[in-house]
Amino acid sequence: MLNKNTLCWVNSFLAMCLLSTSAIAVDSVSSSTSTKESVDKLVAQSFTLDQAIDYAIANNPDLQIAIQRIEQADAQLGVALSAFYPQVSAKVGYETSNNPAQVFSMIVAQRDFNSNSIANINDPGYRQNFRPEIIGKVSLFRGGQDYQNSKAAELGIEAAEFERSSIHNALIQAVTATFYAHLAAIEAQKNAQNAIVAIESELKQTQLKHAAGTVLKSDVLSLEVKLAEAQESQIRATNAIETAKVNLVNLLGLPSQAVFNIASSSIYAPPKLTIPFNELLEQAMGQRPEVRAAAKQVEIAQHKVKSAQGAYLPKADAYVSYGQNSQTPGFSSSKENVTAGVAVEMDIFSGFNTQQQLRTAELKATEAVETERKTKLAVEQEVKIAYLKLQESLARLHVADVSVQSAVEALRLVKEERHAEVVTVTRYIEAEVARNTAQSNSIAAHYDALSAEAALKKAIGAWK
């Protein structure tokens, strides 16, 4: 019969789902049909652990979002690189005026200047001007801002890839832990059912003996209490199985109504801890995605600082404009005008905007450095806790295996004494409860060790 500690372990184990995903809603009839077809295909499908991991990698929303963020970072790089290309624009302008200065300018631009233009310069009347125009511009120098921004964008892609690796690493660990929790709950349910069958059989015999006056009423009552406890354990184990399935559905990115099976569990060999802690920590610092992403954020922030510093330097642009000026929209090559030049500008006073932009960038760089340090400390703590947890789990597993052997032998001896009627039914039930408890503890310790191994792999970034 299961003890409460084992069942609490099973239920708490299910809380290890680290990735939050949004509830999946069906918005249209077509999507409902598509979802139903997907669900129908899964009815007869059984997932092994490896299959569940592969399916989660392909369908988990969090991982898909991370992939989209990489694409967004790549698009941001394209935006940054666009500053190195010429910018070409086209426009059409129309204006009319009787302002002598503007009208004189229009006449000259339209190449209509003659002697009458001077005679009527103070009273030219209204004149209109159509100007279609193509303008080209290229940045020659922007204080290194374009270069620094492009380098920051390149690092942004790498940081986004490390973030995807981080989610990938955590997702595999979560699927693995939930899968093991499901298998542990199944074994717990089997033990509970075996306990119920054994106690019900003993209860029937004891009730008959009580009716015959050979046993006390207290023996019957004790067995009824034990039966209720076993039934409660079965209910908890059954609920734990369903809860594990719900969590697994969420991680796999399946709709809540999806029906699938977990493949019959083979014997998962208990893990071994052969690598020393210092070596594991070194591996974690070298390959953990969060650490590498934090380092990239520091580099990005440093490039942003240099970009902000570039705002103090002059800016130079080359430009060329081609167009025509005429009183009618029609095109005439004789009235085309071309302008080309170089413009250099420098901010003398921007209302302290440049200074504050630089200060903001420097503060963000300091924040990135501290975030990197915090990330390393958190990873070190996680590796240490995972390492200690695996050590504890392996020790518990060894003790539990020894306990099972002792409990099985004790029950065998009590059964013989029971047949010889030298022990009470209470003693027999106690021995059976001890055997079932030892078996439950052994199962819990076995899957606890496997999950602890998965947590340690996640802590060192083994699943990149």
Give the helix/strand layout.
Layout: H1 4-13, H2 29-42, E1 46-47, H3 49-59, H4 61-81, E2 87-97, H5 100-109, H6 115-119, E3 127-141, H7 145-211, H8 217-252, E4 261-262, H9 277-287, H10 289-309, E5 315-324, E6 336-345, H11 353-419, H12 425-459
Parallel strand pairs: 1-4
Antiparallel strand pairs: 2-3, 3-5, 5-6
Shape: elongated
CATH architecture: Up-down Bundle
Gyration radius, to the nearest Å? 38 Å
User: Kindly state the mean pLDDT as a whole number?
Assistant: 85
Order of helices and strands: HHEHHEHHEHHEHHEEHH
Strand content: 5-15%
- The name CATH uses for the topology is Outer membrane efflux proteins (OEP)
The top level CATH class name: Mainly Alpha
CATH superfamily: Outer membrane efflux proteins (OEP)
Strand order of the largest sheet: 2-3-5-6
* Count of distinct strands: 6
Unreliable stretches (pLDDT < 50, length at least 5) are 1-40
Number of helical segments? 12
